[in-house]
Amino acid sequence: MPILVGRALNWAITATAGSGFLLFGYDQGVMSGLLTGTAFTKTFPEIDTTNGGNGSESLQGTVVAIYEIGCFFGAIICMLVGERLGRRKCIAIGCVVLSLGAVLQAAAFGIPQMIVGRIVAGIGNGMNTSTIPVWHSELMKASSRGKGLCIELAINILGVMLSYWVDYGMSYVDSDAQFRFPLALQIAFALATLLGILLLPESPRWLIAHDRQDEARQILWAVQPDADLVDINDARLMQSMAEIQSAIDEEREAAAGGSFKVLLKDEGQRFRYRTLLGIGGQFMQQISGINLITYYAPVIFQKSVGLSHNISLLLAGFNGVAYFFSSLIPIWIIDRLGRRKLMLFAAAGQCACMAILAGTVSNGSKAAGIVAVVMLFLFNFFFAVGLLAIPWLLPAEYAPLAIRTRAAALATASNWIFTFLVVEITPVSIGNIQWRTYIYFSVFNFCFLPLIYFFYPETRNLSLEHIDRLFTGDKVLLHWKESMGDGTGPDVDITVEDSHAVLKE
């Protein structure tokens, strides 16, 4: 029996998922303000690219980006063994591994140890980021799944913002604590996530898929908002379990034994198409250019716009604040407007921001520099509204349960390999082709518009089981048809009416 039930349990699940993504955001942003710090450049002169430094831009890119290689392998590990271990065990192991990596980074006195620490921490984060959205989605109702994932990703940006301000505050410290404390702080967030996941339930869909129906029924009951007023053996709740089981049976039959080759099948349930949609969403998120800003905001302000070190760190901090407040917007609109509209809005806005950024940076005047700063802030706004949360949500929504763990892990792996590409080339690109760097990101964002419009189905307010029906007809449906029902399916919502528990779809 779960320790918490009802709304308290739902908030605890969202808070724990958010804690894991706060850690993810903090990890993304923490290195950006350390790279130009005096203590950091003194300890690691090989990657000092500030004015007067003779460090290697390519080595700096590698030290920062090697974290993504660790994340990539963490996601691959989950793809291989995640379904066997379960959602909770994968997240718990990820937190422990990430903590070990944070210790190695905080204690580093040379580039080799820093690289090893970043790889180890990355493996842990890769396991977390490929599993947490799936675990969270499978415990949420259809009507609040998008909102819940947006809260999770807003907390992720809170982590980015926090890292910028921790870096800024520690920049006034003259000792090695200037960079060691920010790196060690990761451990606190990892332990908070670990504690939460140890106290919270497993995904009921994973339990049903592994023939643990009694546990699954308890959890499906416990996550209802008014669980204490509902009979655990309610007939409609049992019907919901039967619907989940039926969907699992159909998916297993289509999966033909569940081998990895099933990810390439495109008959019936269209596993390949659905897997590619998840991978494509993560590809678009990273190639948009967001990590150009997240990982190197102070460097861009300093080298591209020509601001001082102190002002660059301060602006990066305020950019993080604006980014966080922008990330709150989709919490209220994602389940009203849907995924497609927000993604199209983001891609169009990001395309314009990068084009204007290229023009202003090439101009080089003070007025153009102000416009460039505004474009960096605006880019984060568009990204936060439409491409921050949705690419993490789609792999869990599009992929059926039979391949959900592997498809989500593969999508996450693609996220990290493309993040590695962007983070690796950014210092070299800014150093060599300068303002032209922003042109190709503008072109990439323009190309996303037809991809989203023609290939990505709308999943707003649909249950995970009903999303299957968008992919099982003669052609993929981009929108749910009213003639197919209301689409809420077994993501049940139990309320109280006349002192009796009523289950409504």
From TrEMBL:
Sorted alphabetically, the keyword list is: Membrane, Transmembrane, Transmembrane helix, Transport
Q: Name one Pfam family in it.
A: Sugar_tr
Where does the Major facilitator superfamily (MFS) profile domain start and stop, copy by copy? 13-460
Q: Give the main location.
A: membrane
What are this entry's molecular-function GO terms?
carbohydrate:proton symporter activity
Which residue ranges does UniProt annotate as crossing the membrane?
9-26, 64-83, 90-109, 115-136, 148-166, 181-200, 311-333, 342-361, 367-395, 407-426, 438-456
Look up the domain of life of the source: Eukaryota
Family matches, as PROSITE patterns = MFS
The cellular location(s) given in this protein's UniProt record come to:
Membrane
Q: How does it sit in the membrane?
A: Multi-pass membrane protein
Gene Ontology cellular-component annotations: membrane
Please name the InterPro entries in this protein's record: MFS_dom, MFS_sugar_transport-like, MFS_Sugar_Transporters, MFS_trans_sf, Sugar/inositol_transpt
Q: Which family does it belong to?
A: Belongs to the major facilitator superfamily. Sugar transporter (TC 2.A.1.1) family.
The name this protein goes by in its record: Major facilitator superfamily (MFS) profile domain-containing protein
